[in-house]
């Protein structure tokens, strides 16, 4: 039987939502092994002068514990 742990992370990107999510996975992968899935809990955009400047995501990341 596997044990799965869930952590919450925040990531951002100036390119778009998909890139922000990928940044979350990339950064978590540097210190956490056995990533299983990512759930986007919330989305946020920063706006300046009527234009989106950056995209942010709050994600729940699941991984199997050894």
From TrEMBL:
Gene3D superfamilies: Flavin-binding protein dodecin. It comes from the Bacteria. Coiled coil: none annotated. This is Dodecin. It comes from Flavihumibacter solisilvae. The lineage of its organism: Bacteria, Pseudomonadati, Bacteroidota, Chitinophagia, Chitinophagales.
């Amino acid at each position: 039987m596997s044990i799965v742990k869930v952590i919450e992370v925040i990531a951002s990107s100036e390119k778009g939502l998909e890139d922000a999510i990928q940044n979350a996975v990339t950064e978590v992968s540097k210190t956490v092994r056995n990533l299983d899935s990512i759930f986007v809990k919330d989305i946020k955009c920063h706006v300046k002068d009527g234009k989106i400047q950056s995209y942010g995501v709050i994600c729940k990341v699941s991984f199997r514990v050894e």
